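REQUEST
  id: r-88c1
  op: predict_structure
  target: HTH cro/C1-type domain-containing protein
  payload:
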Amino acid sequence: MQKSIATVKPLTEDHLSIPTYDPNNLLDDLIEKLNLKNDAALSRALEIAPPVISKIRHRRLPIGASLLVRMHDMTGLQLNELRKMAGIPLPTGQVQASRS
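RESPONSE
  id: r-88c1
  status: 200
  body:
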């Protein structure tokens, strides 16, 4: 199944103030799922600079679409599941698929 990055909406600066937004939950879950020790190991696994993880944790940088896709590729989790883990609302017009 081919994915279109165009359908992955990144967070904007406005999204950083959403009450449900919790990037730490997502990052901590990824560390656990990938059996990593810390943020430095996560940054290496995702092939991003360690300060990016720090800026996301401190809500100075939103989680971009390309990073969400990379997280999906590393974990196999659906993009909407990753968004849910971070408390990111689904894009307008999308409905979360129910699991059977």
